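Consider the following input, taken from an annotated entry for Ubiquitin carboxyl-terminal hydrolase (Otus sunia).
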Amino acid sequence: MNTFLGFGREHIERHYRKTGQCVYLHLKQHVIEKVPGASGGALPKRRNAKLFLDLERNSDLNSDDFEYEDEAKLVIFPDHYEISLPNIEELPALVTIACDALLSAKSPYRKQEPDSWEEELQASKHAKALVQLDNGVRIPPSGWKCSKCDLRENLWLNLTDGSVLCGKWFFDGSGGNGHAVEHYKETGYPLAVKLGTITPDGADVYSFDEEEPVLDPHIAKHLAHFGIDMLQMQVTENGLRDNDIKPRVSEWEVIQEAGVKLKPMYGPGYTGMKNLGNSCYLNAVMQAIFSIPEFQRAYVGNLPRIFDYSPLDPTQDFNTQMAKLGHGLLSGQYSKPPMKSELIEQVMKEEHKPQHNGISPQMFKAFISKGHPEFSSNRQQDAQEFFLHLINLVERNPVGSENPSDVFRFLVEERTQCCQSRKVRYTERVDYIMQLPVAMEAATNKDELIAYELKRREAEAARRPPPELVRAKIPFSACLQAFSEPNNVEDFWSSALQAKSAGVKTSRFASFPEYLVVQIKKFTFGLDWIPKKLDVSVDMPDFLDISHLRARGLQPGEEELPDIAPPIVIPDDPKDRTTNHLMESLDIDESSVMQLAEMGFPLEACRKAVYYTGNLGAEVAFNWIIAHMEEPDFAEPLVIPAFGEVASSGAAAFGAVGLDNQPPEEMVAIIISMGFQRNLAIRALKATNNNLERALEWIFSHPEPEEESEPALDMMDMENNANANILAETGSEGPRIKDGSGKYELFGFISHMGTSTMSGHYVCHLKKEGRWVIYNDLRVCASERPPKDLGYLYFYHRIPS
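Applying the prediction step yields:
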């Protein structure tokens, strides 16, 4: 009653011993089955009118067969003295007021939800007398496309003339080109229904004139005018409608293993997670993370210690929330099979009431996404981006002597070669994910793809349903080959020629991680800059050997590029210098921006990352993104400073320079993120007048740092551990890595269904106890046909040599 924190029975004693707080409000609910025919009809669902704390109800029990009885008591520790509520006679007025306020308080999680979810729609004033043109238009059951552009999502059917047009474009990149609104302005036809939301129970209808969603009591008649039978439109599992997912229906069915009777799994490690509204990306990643022994030991194995030493407000402690979530998934307490008596009763009643199993990660999501512009929203997100965000938080919140995220960490050797002089430079950086490009040109079924595309266009022109989807089949070996091939280096300056030249870069593994995460880069941008997904099948191997990608370092006969920094051109006129600096700042490498955007990061954040890292390439910009993901303006548009603001904005972008002439902290963090020590980064920036590009050249030409005293090294360790960048490296021994063999075995994969990272659904498959298991939010079942060729993120563990 002092901190207003809630605790379960097994944790209340620990909190009392730790804080000395002795007054607690105990809330309990009793679920009681109703007596058939009692009171001559339906009984009220609750015996007490007051709803305690706006608690969430079990939807499986929220029926006419059950009712709730609420009980509230004050409990005084350590004697467990109980006072039933309400009790105005015995309790002070202040305590009574506090209890009433608590019992009537709204859940903080529901406060986060938009109020519009609770609003009731009103019937449109246009519905009763809506005029429908007899123009012979008939709408097919699927295969829709905007009549004014090529969009196939967010389509609206005008109920007056049968036009199919796209909706508005939203700030998050979803939506359309606004052709439905333009059509209303031209014609005045007021009502439209969203295609894909039509079910036997109704549809989403919008009134352009009333500027709000509305009800259409005559929707069945209005749809029948255009040949649409509402009774034939069905809803699939997870609230996803059939017409929303066509022509990708096979992808949804295959990945979720629809049409196959799957056996539910129960017990430790087989606990589902509730979808909080587009939170399946979080559910899938956390299931994979807590299937790894190192994370199990770090958080669940250390649970008593983490709870004992947690701060007074454990809701704001990362390790406490991780331990709590891990315990929920691995303890088995929330994944229990139904009792035999319950099964017999269900069979006798010819009904099936699913067991109320699984956990709701509301508190975990609220904490881990706090301050992040994307993850704090209810929009769908990229699982790969969330994985990196999680690793960032694990790095910043050490638990125990070992960091569990080290199992993913590996070193990448980058070999850059000047094409004219043939001289080379070798550098290393830290990474956590192996990103494989999709080699579309290597598809083995090109003839089938061409035939499918012709049939699809014919069906589109004739407004017929599209043909059965043909998916490109890509050999995994082709993706691996594309990863290992040299890439052109944009704007390469050759120190051998002391001029700009053509350069190529190849990447190899300087170390192999204990657990290898492989991302198939399916998400890209079309020519219209609209995010899209490559719907491909990649024959991912169960056993993977990438030993041939081991870095070899400088080879005999190779000559290194000279350690010469690019020349600096300083204008004579200070005003010209300001102008020159601003003009350079406006030059943003769009190719690097696109590379980052394909990883799933917001476009504006990618532009800022490339801008603030001086166009040094996608790798450096990626490190900047990781270091700034939690800033409130992370995804805000890039604001180029005006002429008079160049100096101040530069300080803001790279951290103000201190009076002691210390380099900007932001520049230091960027260099640290590439795997270099903090003291080396500071020396390099000081030696080059805080020029980031020249500082990197200086580091390459001074590979041997001077010896530092032990206190200085300890101080650097403390500073670097506090740094927000997940790639920060400390100590004289270099990056924390667990090198070993390059041979791996597949144990899990995360699949995505949908057309882009901003929509769709994620499912996780994990191999446990020798068999594959599908984790589809709350549903955990034995997998019959794991779709290993349709995954997005793959998890491999090293085979002991």
